[in-house]
Amino acid sequence: MPLYESVLIARNDVSQAQVESLVETIEALLTENGGSIQKREFWGLRSLAYRIKKNRKGHYVLLGIDCTPDTLREVERQLGLNEDVLRVLTLRVDEIDGTPSPVLARKNDDRGDRGSFRGGSKPAGRFESGRGGPRRGSEDREEYRARGEQDDAREAAGAE
């Protein structure tokens, strides 16, 4: 049977338990038709890139599915009818990777690094000011240098 990876986004006002029960209903439908879920990852509540049906956040779930194309069409039809599901994207893949997805791996890495520099020195950043360029004093700017040169020229003219 072909293999698929499917990412679905559920509304943010449903609970994690409701999202898990939604995945259980998908799994029941798949097993009923001879398919299975080989991988499941709950990515948690994440911000959306743009509003979808007046929602700014959603619960993301990645599923590795092994089923026939007809069964997959039925699963997508059922998800489309469910009001709690905002979006579904399903891709056919050659194999389902058992390792954690990059999204889940990055999420786990961020938790370990949070607040790690509080006790020690702050890690070196790209810029000192954080504004886009190195911080310069007011005397280093060209406009101030030009004003200073004009003032010097006036003083020299006044001394003569």
Characteristic terms for this protein:
alpha+beta, 160 residues, 4 helices, Alpha-Beta Plaits, four-stranded antiparallel β-sheet
CATH homologous superfamily of the domain at 3-96, by name?
Ribosomal protein S6/Translation elongation factor EF1B
Structural class based on helices, strands and sheet pairing: alpha+beta
Number of DSSP helical runs: 4
The CATH architecture designation of the domain at 3-96 is 2-Layer Sandwich
Estimate what percentage of residues fall within beta strands. 25-35%
Work out the helicity level. Answer: 25-40%
**Assembly state of the chains shown:** single chain
Topology readout:
Blueprint: E1 3-11, H1 16-32, E2 36-52, E3 55-66, H2 69-81, E4 85-93, H3 102-113, H4 142-159
What would your notes on this structure say?
This protein is an alpha+beta fold and 160 residues long. It has a domain at 3-96: Alpha-Beta Plaits (2-Layer Sandwich). It is built from four helices and four strands. It has a four-stranded antiparallel beta sheet with strand order 2-3-1-4. Strand 2 and strand 3 (55-66) form a beta hairpin.
